[in-house]
Amino acid sequence: MFGIIKEWREQRILDNSEFTHTDWLHAAKRIVILDRLDEDELNRLFNLATLFLADKSITGAQGFEITDAVKQSIALQACLPILNLSLEWYAGWSSIIIYPGSYKSDSTTVDEMGIVHEGSQHRSGEAWLRGPVILSWKDAKHSGERDGHNVVIHEFVHKLDMLNGRANGFPPLQADMDPARWTEIMTRDFEDFQTHRKSGLDRYGATNPAEFFAVLSEVFFETPQKLIDAYPDIYDIMVKFFRQTPL
Question: Global pTM?
């Protein structure tokens, strides 16, 4: 019964979308990494993005105007990682905040002596546990250009990671995946990345396992051959996790 109601509600949202199929096609053409998708995949992505926009609010900070182009760009790239999963993977939160450029974020850290340090740093994006995704449009508008950097995918992958608690590089896995193998591969290659530079992989990924997962997810969707060259086992488990083969 609940499934029938859910399908009815979703169909109503799709039927009453503010964007036509042609609108979505024009938006997708501006995002280079989407050119690998076939017609069926694009149609499913457009539907998913439409439902995503109905489920999430996107608001501008510091006077930033949320245009149709901004909404479509964010929605398409946010939904790419869950294209073969479902919108349920983004459950439990509802807000996306867009700044015009990088913004300051307060931070609190505790050193090995137990001393608390407070400060602030400029950010291009962040994801809060059970809270909003925050993005800098100056950075997000260049996402999807197949250069290995994608702040939208990065922050939304953090949201996938947070489905089972704080981001730690170990998201809920698919039923047919082996958690022990995921842990073994990600731990081994994270330790390697901390001491060895890899072409096309942002050093920010060496910060901690959560950032390693998010950074390598950017590469998986943007420049997958770079990930295969650096860490082929991670590419393989990401294929199983995202249910996609971007190369």
Answer: 0.92
User: How does DSSP classify residue 38?
Assistant: -
H-state helical runs in 56-163: 68-79, 137-140, 151-161
Domain 2-242: top CATH class: mainly alpha
Q: What is the pLDDT along the chain (247 residues), one digit of tens a residue?
A: 567 788 888 999 999 999 999 999 999 999 999 999 999 999 999 999 999 999 999 999 999 999 999 999 999 999 999 999 999 999 999 999 999 998 877 655 555 566 654 555 678 899 999 999 999 999 999 999 999 999 999 999 999 999 999 999 999 999 999 999 999 999 999 999 999 999 999 999 999 999 999 999 999 999 999 999 999 999 999 999 999 999 8
Domain ranges of the chain: 2-242
